[in-house]
Write a structure and sequence with these properties.
There is one protein chain. The protein is α/β, with parallel strands linked by helices. It has one domain (2-302): Alpha-Beta Barrel (TIM Barrel), CATH 3.20.20.70. The chain is 45% helix and 16% strand. An 8-stranded parallel beta barrel has the order 1-2-3-6-7-10-11-12, surrounded by 7 helices.
Length: 308
């Protein structure tokens, strides 16, 4: 799947992933009210509104982008109907040729980690027949429990030719409380990066490993260090736009060939219609506003890479 991600990036010329992170505040009221009327102002009504919202966003942008990244917590908060909307979103995006990165941040040990990996990336066999659960192409993984928590994901990735992105240096303000701590004279995130290289050494696609890394756009200097430490790991870069990252901050996340990183924007795209810059689209054209935001983001990143 890492090969498909690279191919999609080359085809679109846009190292961009759109974060499908719906909230009640972002979904247009007209979409909510339509689904409330049909299904009720309840968990099912919200879930149906989420799916309608997501489909319109994907329809408007799928030809411009290589991948999407739904954040599962935004769906789980709406219970079983929300989980169904998550699964239907995954399936719809894959039907459009998009690579799907499930932002699940799982990490446990032994059989539990194996079950997470199988449920999201692999398959189970029941009475001789194979069945797939959520079936994303990549997922995000928390490495805090060490190799015991990550290796089951890597094993499933090798079997299924799928991938993971390991949290290395995250974009949130308090990430440094642990990730920047010095261990043997070096930041903890550097040690995690070295494990990413180790975990991915025997799980390679054509040019990049099945095991990638999450490094926040809000920490460009750390990104420069980590790019050198993980030359064969694709870097998923959250924090663009709403969290303050911009194209000029991102150039060091890429390799010299312009590959090696994919930049995520969530609210900045799916909620673009709420921004002053795109207000002229109006609520009804929220998907068109999202498309305009993708094009602007692509131009920003292209310009930054061209001038480095």
């Amino acid at each position: 799947m890492i090969n498909k991600l690279v191919e999609n990036i080359k085809k679109t010329g846009a190292p961009i992933v759109v974060g499908l992170d719906p909230t009640l505040a972002l979904i247009p009221d007209s979409v909510l009210q339509k689904n409330y009327k049909e299904y009720g102002a309840n968990l099912e009504g919200v879930a149906k509104a989420i799916l309608e919202y997501n489909k319109a966003l994907v329809d408007a942008c799928y030809d411009l982008i290589p991948a999407v990244k739904p954040q599962i917590a935004m769906y789980e908060q709406f219970g079983i109907p929300g989980i169904i909307a998550y699964k239907e979103t995954v399936d719809y995006c894959k039907s459009k040729g998009l690579v799907v990165i499930g932002d699940i941040k799982r990490g446990d040990i032994g059989s539990t980690s194996t079950a997470y990996a199988i449920g999201h990336l692999g398959k189970v066999t029941i009475e001789g027949k194979d069945f797939r659960g959520i079936d994303e192409d990549f997922v995000t993984v928390n490495p805090y429990l060490g190799t015991d928590g990550v290796k089951p994901f890597v094993d499933v990735c090798k079997e299924e030719k799928k991938g993971i992105f390991v949290l290395v240096k995250t974009s949130n303000p308090s990430s440094g409380e642990f990730q920047d701590r010095l261990v043997d004279g070096r930041a903890l995130y550097e040690h995690v990066a070295e494990k990413v290289v180790e975990w991915g050494a025997d799980a390679m696609g054509d040019s990049y490993s099945y095991v990638g890394a999450v490094v926040g756009a809000t920490y460009p200097e750390q990104g420069k260090i980590l790019r050198k430490l993980m030359p064969k790991a694709y870097i998923l870069v959250p924090g663009y736009g709403a969290q303050g990252g911009k194209g000029a901050d991102l150039v060091h996340f890429f390799n010299e060939d312009g590959l090696g990183a994919i930049i995520n924007s969530s609210r900045g795209i799916i909620g673009a219609y709420k921004q002053e810059k795109y207000a002229n689209f109006g609520e009804a054209a929220y998907a068109d506003a999202a498309r305009a935001a993708v094009l602007d983001m692509k131009a920003d990143i292209e310009g930054a890479l061209a001038s480095r």
